[in-house]
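Is this the right way to post structure tokens for a design question? Let me know if I should format differently. Anyway, here goes:
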């Protein structure tokens, strides 16, 4: 048990080190200007870590620029309550009140962060736009309260059946968006096909009746360092969504247009130049 507690504590320290490394990288990339009137202090409560452990971590990780203070029980309690209030206000500002998913503004912020991550890591990213099929008929036939239940059911499915680092949002009345970091077109389509099938087989209980509904989805994928924006991804995924609708609905369409980094071919070594380099002759 003692060894297990030690390992858990070490995992916390390792996680904190990774978090500080990421913050230091972001600060370095932001290229701040020396202006005495523009200063920012970041506060992070770290429960369970002593000042001695922080000093050792700071020395080992080179975090001497980070300022640490000890908190007694009363100050820790007050700061914890303040943090809880801030977290709740942040959650309310970022979440759709009906579904609890991210709202459009928060999702666009997540998308921007993931685009920056792809730029740094030369990775890949997929965006899916999801739209409920024939949703107006449900509202007209069973009422808006039943339509709300259908929306909540899809939201719960997206929240429960995706990976922990995926981001789901409600971006319109019956429109959702799903951000899949690290997923290429094949993996994204497999995941959306599974969700599409699961939702089509779901019976949704309303007051007057039990209903079924389907959705259509369009997927756009991005790979490598690029200059594509979130707006570009949304546009391509939206076009794929319309193709899925026009093909009969209740399906997923992945765009064939893969956004990739276009290399400057003027700096590339051509085949005849390669032959000269490796053989010494043309």
């Amino acid at each position: 048990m003692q060894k297990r507690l030690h390992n858990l504590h070490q995992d916390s320290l390792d996680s904190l080190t990774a978090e500080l490394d990421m913050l230091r990288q972001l600060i370095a990339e932001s290229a701040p200007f020396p202006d005495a009137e523009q200063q920012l202090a970041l506060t992070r409560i770290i429960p369970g870590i002593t000042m001695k452990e922080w000093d050792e971590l700071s020395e080992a990780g080179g975090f001497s620029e980070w300022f640490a203070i000890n908190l007694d029980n009363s100050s820790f309690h007050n700061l914890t309550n303040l943090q809880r209030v801030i977290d709740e206000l942040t959650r309310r500002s970022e979440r759709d009140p009906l579904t609890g998913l991210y709202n459009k503004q928060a999702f666009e912020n997540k998308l921007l962060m993931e685009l920056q991550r792809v730029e740094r890591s030369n990775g890949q990213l997929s965006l899916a736009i999801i739209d409920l099929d024939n949703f107006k008929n449900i509202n007209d036939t069973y009422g808006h309260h039943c339509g709300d239940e259908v929306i909540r059911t899809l939201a719960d499915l997206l929240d429960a059946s995706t990976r922990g680092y995926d981001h789901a949002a409600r971006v319109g009345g019956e429109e959702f968006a799903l951000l899949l970091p690290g997923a290429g077109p094949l993996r994204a389509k497999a995941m959306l096909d599974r969700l599409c099938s699961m939702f089509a087989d779901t019976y949704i209980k309303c007051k007057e009746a039990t209903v079924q509904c389907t959705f259509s989805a369009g997927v756009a994928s991005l790979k490598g360092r690029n200059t594509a924006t979130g707006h570009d991804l949304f546009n391509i995924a939206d076009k794929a969504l319309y193709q899925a609708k026009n093909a009969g609905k209740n399906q997923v369409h992945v765009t064939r247009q893969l956004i990739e980094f276009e290399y400057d071919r003027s700096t590339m070594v051509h085949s005849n130049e390669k032959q000269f380099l490796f053989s010494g002759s043309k």
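Format looks fine. Someone answered above. Worth noting: The two ends are 70 Å apart (CA to CA). Confidence is low (pLDDT under 50) at residues 1-6, 261-271, 273-282.
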